[in-house]
């Protein structure tokens, strides 16, 4: 059983640890109750390689929203074969998707931020919660350098929505370091990254960005920067952390999930 008090101890113990050491620690510390949520992005591919190569007891799963790029499906297949791992796929509840699409249209996310949140909630957040039911901790590939909403990412955080520890082994890695690792270890990756897509999500909500632009600026580009999260990542204070958040905020109202 983990609580918010679990996090400071982890941060102290893991100060200066490598990503591989952080993953090994997570497998030991949360034995059987930790999993890795992969979005198949470059960072997540690095973590998959590390987990597979060290044969860590950290199951890997992903969320299939039904709106992913064909390249992403191909990458799931290539990655499973390359590392001999199962990437378990969680799908949204068919009845919920059908009801939403009947009522709001298949591209409701263009209509308003609220409609976009609703789509992310049904296609991403609820399947994620289902994937997390048996867990005390989850691993993900967030980095501080991924844009305005991620500047405060730490190696270990308390996930207020999931009510468990979130481990970010690559929190301090630069984009260049991620790319170097991918090259050096011949890690399979999404070819869209070579076409100007630093962050890849659902096809209708992701576009290429110009060199030097914020890595998240190609996601939900019609919304302001502080909204560009899908509701899976809540950190110390609020979704769009501008540095003014309290250290120990109250849990957010799930109905207020930004994306
Ligand atoms: Fe829906 Fe877009 Fe969110 Fe995907 S990213 S779940 S298509 S709103």
Order of helices and strands, N to C?
A: HHEHEHEHHEEEH
Total strands: 6
CATH architecture identity: 3-Layer(aba) Sandwich
**CATH-level-4 superfamily name:** HUPs
Number of domains: 1
Query: What would the average pLDDT be, to the nearest integer?
Result: 87
Beta-strand portion reads 5-15%
Summarize the main sheet. Answer: 6 strands, mixed
The CATH top-level class label: Alpha Beta
Uncertain segments are 235-259
As a percent range, the share of helical residues equals 25-40%
Distance between the termini: 28 Å
**Sequence of strands across the biggest β-sheet:** 3-2-1-4-6-5
Nearest-angstrom radius of gyration? 17 Å
Here the CATH topology equals: Rossmann fold
Q: What is the tally of helical segments?
A: 7
| Overall geometry | globular
Tell me about this structure.
The chain has helices at residues 6-13, 19-29, 42-53, 70-83, 94-104, 113-132, 175-184, and strands at 34-37, 60-63, 87-90, 137-139, 156-159, 164-167. By secondary structure, it is α/β, with parallel strands linked by helices. A 6-stranded mixed β-sheet has the order 3-2-1-4-6-5. The chain has a single domain, classed as 3-Layer(aba) Sandwich (Rossmann fold). α4 (70-83) links the parallel β2 and β3 (87-90). It contains 7 helices and 6 strands; from the N terminus they run ααβαβαβααβββα. The model is unreliable at 235-259 (pLDDT under 50). It binds iron/sulfur cluster (SF4).
């Amino acid at each position: 059983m983990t609580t918010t008090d679990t996090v400071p101890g982890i941060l102290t113990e893991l100060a200066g640890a490598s990503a591989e050491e952080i993953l090994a620690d997570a497998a030991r510390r949360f034995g059987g109750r930790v999993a890795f949520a992969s979005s198949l992005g470059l960072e997540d591919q690095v973590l998959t390689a590390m987990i597979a190569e060290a044969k860590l007891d950290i199951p890997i799963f992903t969320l299939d929203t039904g709106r992913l790029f064909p390249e992403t499906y191909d990458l799931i297949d290539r990655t499973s074969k390359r590392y001999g791992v199962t990437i378990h796929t969680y799908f949204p509840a068919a009845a919920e998707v059908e009801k939403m699409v009947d009522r709001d249209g298949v591209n409701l996310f263009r209509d308003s931020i609220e409609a976009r949140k609703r789509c992310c909630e049904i296609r991403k957040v609820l399947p994620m919660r289902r994937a997390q039911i048996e867990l005390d901790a989850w691993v993900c590939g967030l980095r501080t350098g991924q844009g305005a909403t991620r500047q405060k990412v730490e190696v270990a955080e308390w996930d207020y929505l999931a009510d468990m520890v979130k481990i970010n082994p690559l929190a301090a890695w630069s984009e260049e370091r991620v790319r170097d690792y991918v090259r050096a270890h011949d890690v399979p990756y999404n070819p869209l990254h070579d076409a100007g897509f630093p962050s890849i999500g659902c096809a209708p909500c992701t576009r290429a960005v110009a060199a030097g632009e914020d890595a998240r600026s190609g996601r939900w580009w019609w919304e302001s920067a502080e909204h560009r999260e899908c509701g899976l990542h809540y950190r110390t204070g609020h979704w769009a952390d501008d540095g003014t958040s309290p250290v120990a905020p109250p849990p957010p109202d799930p109905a207020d999930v930004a994306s």
